[in-house]
Design brief:
The chain is mainly alpha-helical. It has one domain. The protein is built from 3 helices and no strands. The chain has helices at residues 2-8, 18-74, 76-85.
Amino acid sequence: MKQLLSLLNIDFLTKDDALKNWRMILFLSLLALIIISSGHLADKKIFEIAQLNNELKEMKSEFVEKRAYLMELKMESRVIESLREIGIKPAKTPPVKLTVELNKE
């Protein structure tokens, strides 16, 4: 019972050997602050990573969309349509390959 009253009266902080106890309390408090700040920094990094993953997904979908649009623009029928609007018609005869022979003397 006496030990319980001693603990409740906080005698361990006011007696002669209290300096040793105060050092331990300050050390544990500092350690607790470091652990709490470390946890907050880890949470912040997790949220940042999640946000970057969302941005990455958006950019990937935008890339796929733009690539599909580019493929549509490069289609022969689309090119023929675009050229027809400015008055150019597709050739009826296929192109001919020209070869030039050089005389080596």
